[in-house]
Amino acid sequence: xxxxxxxxxxxxxxxxxxxxxxxxxxxxxxxxxxxxxxxxxxxxxxxxxxxxxxxxxxxxxxxxxxxxxxxxxxxxxxxxxxxxxxxxxxxxxxxxxxxxxxxxxxxxxxxxxxxxxxxxxxxxxxxxxxxxxxxxxxxxxxxxxxxxxxxxxxxxxxxxxxxxxxxxxxxxxxxxxxxxxxxxxxxxxxxxxxxxxxxxxxxxxxxxxxxxxxxxxxxxxxxxxxxxxxxxxxxxxxxxxxxxxxxxxxxxxxxxxxxxxxxxxxxxxxxxxxxxxxxxxxxxxxxxxxxxxxxxxxxxxxxxxxxxxxxxxxxxxxxxxxxxxxxxxxxxxxxxxxxxxxxxxxxxxxxxxxxxxxxxxxxxxxxxxxxxxxxxxxxxxxxxxxxxxxxxxxxxxxxxxxxxxxxxxxxxxxxxxxxxxxxxxxxxxxxxxxxxxxxxxxxxxxxxxxxxxxxxxxxxxxxxxxxxxxxxxxxxxxxxxxxxxxxxxxxxxxxxxxxxxxxxxxxxxxxxxxxxxxxxxxxxxxxxxxxxxxxxxxxxxxxxxxxxxxxxxxxxxxxxxxxxxxxxxxxxxxxxxxxxxxxxxxxxxxxxxxxxxxxxxxxxxxxxxxxxxxxxxxxxxxxxxxxxxxxxxxxxxxxxxxxxxxxxxxxxxxxxxxxxxxxxxxxxxxxxxxxxxxxxxxxxxxxxxxxxxxxxxxxxxxxxxxxxxxxxxxxxxxxxxxxxxxxxxxxxxxxxxxxxxxxxxxxxxxxxxxxxxxxxxxxxxxxxxxxxxxxxxxxxxxxxxxxxxxxxxxxxxxxxxxxxxxxxxxxxxxxxxxxxxxxxxxxxxxxxxxxxxxxxxxxxxxxxxxxxxxxxxxxxxxxxxxxxxxxxxxxxxxxxxxxxxxxxxxxxxxxxxxxxxxxxxxxxxxxxxxxxxxxxxxxxxxxxxxxxxxxxxxxxxxxxxxxxxxxxxxxxxxxxxxxxxxxxxxxxxxxxxxxxxxxxxxxxxxxxxxxxxxxxxxxxxxxxxxxxxxxxxxxxxxxxxxxxxxxxxxxxxxxxxxxxxxxxxxxxxxxxxxxxxxxxxxxxxxxxxxxxxxxxxxxxxxxxxxxxxxxxxxxxxxxxxxxxxxxxxxxxxxxxxxxxxxxxxxxxxxxxxxxxxxxxxxxxxxxxxxxxxxxxxxxxxxxxxxxxxxxxxxxxx
Length: 1181
What we know:
- Residues 579-655 form the Carrier domain.
- The structure is a single chain.
- The chain is of the alpha/beta class.
- The strands form ten sheets. Strands 3-2-12-11-13-14-15-16-17 form a nine-stranded mixed beta sheet, sandwiched between helices.
- The longest helix has 23 residues, at 557-579.
- A hairpin with a 5-residue loop joins strand 21 and strand 22.
- The chain contains 37 helices and 43 strands.
- The chain is elongated.
- Among the domains are: 463-571, GMP Synthetase, Chain A, domain 3, CATH 3.30.300; 582-652, Orthogonal Bundle (Non-ribosomal Peptide Synthetase Peptidyl Carrier Protein, Chain A), CATH 1.10.1200.10; 676-876, Chloramphenicol acetyltransferase-like domain (Chloramphenicol Acetyltransferase), CATH 3.30.559; 887-1097 and 1115-1175, Nonribosomal peptide synthetase, condensation domain (Chloramphenicol Acetyltransferase, 2-Layer Sandwich), CATH 3.30.559.
């Protein structure tokens, strides 16, 4: 990899120290440092285990062994275990605390060629855990700390395991010994009657032999046994020794749990350098630790934040010095710069270091001691250093091995010499080989900065997906923990609108009172609205004293989520009882207070909610209000009535009309087909009805459908809808969406889909063009005949991922086209899961981006609540479509047409400004295998088999100053990004004109005066396609300032939206020949389309327990390039650029996206706002 690579992959330096077996390491230490102190156990006597400390020049009151003495004790124990039958490769399970016994046991296992299996001694009293671990480890020997633990293990052992054990030894002083147990003291007494069997060549260990088995913490399941080979374990130790430049002058204060990889490797780090390890106590004792550092002048210490915080509290009442400490290593999952600062100041240790590793690969990265002191305050998250010697790190897209760019988040892949080769007993893990290296997919979300430094954001399983945006709990915890006197944990809780929302649980670290509502303020200020916890609760609220943790100190977030879920459920029941007797204003006040994380005292009922809540929060409020109060308060009404007072007055005025959306037109239940008065296009002419009937029967009879029984309604198709309906190929203007029904069988899914489609009239459509009429949509009544025509069931697939390719580009199944059905579905079982998948194709003339989610929401509701679920009525699309047709010749419509014609005059002379260049006939995104043969021959795919245009290129970038530009100048985000796109077009065409189309949602009642529209239903609730395509003609003046250009585009966008419903074909007619020869207006419009997605976050939202999960969305528009984009939060901009593979290469599109990002960053930078747009050169973009 080039040192200047922008990819998020890093490699530490070469490992200079030799990799040997633990046998060779321990033997070499005894030879090289025979008289250097290796082990100090301040809680054990100098003559414990029959070794003395007399070799020291100064008599010691506690156990103090040299490297040669430690080796001798280990060797003696190895020979006696050998005599008792233990052999090379056998496993020794050790339930031990910190002390000489652990060191001797580790040495003896290594010298014997056996495998050392340290296990948390707290597990001894848990029979199921003991049974699992001893069975998994296949233990032949057992070391217990004391008599009580030995008895507990005897009770836990199954008969099979008990019979298999060849040696059982009690390691602490014991007057009596249970039957079948040996005393370690006796085994190490040179004068005891135990035989010694010399070690032989057969006991020699090899690099690829097992050395140690470490059991993982098991936060969500039973622990897995990690196989540490001599090669991987010693490589890990050598890496740390080299990275930190350790030598024999260093001494380590060891409080770490010896059964943990952290404890094992740190002990070995100091020994391997010839240094010493000091155990202050058998279990962590802050006073004993501080006294040991003071008395022994220890140079290094390591631990997790809770250990250091306990030491800080103890130090306040002790007269001890920490001056000897050269570095304090801090590890753990809840680190923040504030915590590091507190530890440094509280202990008086200037140099604190961090690192990252796991039981399967450690250490991966670290801040070397030579770089201390390090400024950790540069980021909200804690830097964990760069890859160490022999280590490799990649940051990849989740569920992929594709490396992301530096600065982008992804999943950390661990590689290098210290990566283990798997787990015992066939336990699953994501290990793989690549580039001559072993790799492990860690499950951790991380970022590699351009400098190569690593920041870990938390476990992917703990990520919160709010409205499609990934939120790292660790990033919020880091900010919340800056508040004095608290520590926090952040979890995701299910939400029916956002999918998940963050919830903060705080715990006081002092006796002072805590302000839960201060959490909202600090997170809003430092991170933005997206990250504000939906609620903050204390552990006292939950009725617990501390966060649930594993035996190694990791917070068990899965268990914490369960505690919180029970709390919320019980509280909701109490609130529901209270709400029945509360006023609307009181209940609304409480709902908004909860959702905004603000106290009711601080949330004034006259304050505009729009200043406090984002779109997802508003939708969540609407849902919660309906659930708790029985009232419908739409998101549009929140905008119209933004204060709590106004909302309460509105709901008060609806007494007796609960759960009914105001102004929703009634849906007529008609017997038989529509008549002349039901068809707007007929204009009262009975012959038009007859022509409509004939046209329908000509296309529907082969499906077994008839006019009399099956036609529910007839809907005119608007001009751009007719463009969409043109069948230039089977997949013209198709969408393909794939979903997994996580809790439903194929039969249940089909039943739910059929029920959902009864509420989606526009997805039950055929299309035909009667004589003397524009094309029409025919809404077909739901029936068995219709559903059999629409739904196909196929044989089971292996897994959910197979849905992405299920019947892909199948000429009979993978399309929805005129004459219809315009919506088609494939249902398929997923093997071995009891669940099913849904792949549907929809023709774009019958839906848009705001109506198709209605199907998803209805399906979710039915799958969750059953066939009798209540589905709220929506505004029928026919009302809108009829209005669009009937008023297309009105004065307002004519004025709209004139506006566009004036803008577009001269298009015929602007061909040089058209981009992208057309290299082949037509504009097709995706498959066109059914097109005419001569057309296919003229459209070779530029990237061949590697073509990806239909899915496109998706990238993200941060625009940190976007909100400042919006707030200070009143611009909209789409207008700012349209400005960037206009400049990009100018750069590519070398002209001062940008020509491209943008989609307009068209969510307003067409051609009506405002006072009439106000009395109609909210157009946002129209259940069908209202969108329009509007061609932009933007002139770029290089001398015009950035602010002036954005303002001009922002103002013009307002007018484009106002005139969006102008009849497209009338515009085309009036332009006449004022277009390039051989083309027409709609052809120009299809070249390049800009589509702003205001609901991008919401569209990507899926909670873990969602009954429907998306696996694929594919747009097959007949376009050259489609820019689908939007904001994921206040700073993060996402672009998906999909394209015609016959016109563009992937590399060209990737370049275009990056250049667009460059322009967007440049124009949003405050220092450039007054500059001429001409200064934004091609090079800067």
